[in-house]
């Protein structure tokens, strides 16, 4: 049996924000990150596996609703893809030939008043972060770099840059 990558949809949700100093406030944006109750790589964008018959956009919006309890206006699909292999310690418990994930990103915009509601099981916390704060949450360098690119792409499309 040939190894395959699980199709995964992720959604980069931005909301308008301001960066203020004593002199003035500058329009900027924040991105939604969710926290999974696990030891490593706990912070991530809303994401999950694509179900049979779903497009990447449909899967991303479903995952956003399931994990954060919100909807968002889709701006488009990112040109960036994050593909990685599962660690051997995880793969040995899988009864299939899935060797990793191929994550495609949807870009979206939420209203500043959007109220996030996590389920406290699959997701136990959330945070809205400015671009400069991303490294405090995303520790895996390869993933952080792709999220930074996706964040910039979403900001350009949203006019929040």
What are its keywords?
161 residues; 39% strand; Nucleoside Triphosphate Pyrophosphohydrolase; alpha+beta; seven-stranded mixed beta sheet; single chain
Protein architecture, described:
With 161 residues, the protein is of the alpha+beta class. The chain has a single domain (4-158), classed as Nucleoside Triphosphate Pyrophosphohydrolase, CATH 3.90.79. The protein is built from four helices and seven strands. Strand 1 (4-20) and strand 2 (25-35) form a beta hairpin. 28% of the residues are buried.
**H/E series:** EEEEHEHEEHH
Mean pLDDT: 91
Number of helices: 4
Low-confidence segments, given as residue ranges, are none
- Largest beta sheet, briefly? 7 strands, mixed
Overall morphology: globular
- The counted number of beta strands is 7
CATH superfamily: Nucleoside Triphosphate Pyrophosphohydrolase
What is the total domain count? 1
Q: Do you know the CATH architecture?
A: Alpha-Beta Complex
Q: Helix/strand-derived class? A: alpha+beta
Q: Helix proportion of residues, in percent? A: 10-25%
Q: Any idea of the CATH class?
A: Alpha Beta
Distance between the termini: 46 Å
Please compute the radius of gyration using only Cα atoms: 16 Å
Q: Which band does the percent of strand residues land in? A: 35-45%
CATH fold-level assignment: Nucleoside Triphosphate Pyrophosphohydrolase
């Amino acid at each position: 049996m040939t190894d395959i990558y699980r199709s995964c949809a992720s959604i980069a949700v931005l909301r308008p924000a301001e960066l203020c100093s004593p002199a003035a406030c500058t329009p900027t944006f924040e991105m939604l990150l969710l926290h999974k109750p696990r030891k490593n790589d706990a912070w991530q964008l809303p994401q999950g596996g694509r179900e049979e018959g779903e497009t990447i956009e449909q899967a991303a919006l479903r995952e956003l609703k399931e994990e954060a309890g919100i909807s968002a206006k889709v701006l488009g699909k990112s040109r960036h893809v994050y593909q990685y292999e599962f660690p051997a310690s995880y793969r040995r418990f899988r009864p299939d030939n899935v060797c990793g994930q191929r994550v495609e990103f949807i870009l979206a915009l939420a209203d500043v008043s959007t109220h996030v509601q996590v389920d406290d099981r699959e997701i136990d916390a959330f945070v809205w972060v400015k671009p400069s704060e991303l490294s405090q949450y995303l520790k895996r360098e390869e993933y952080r770099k792709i999220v930074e690119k996706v964040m910039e792409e979403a900001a350009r499309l949203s006019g929040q840059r």
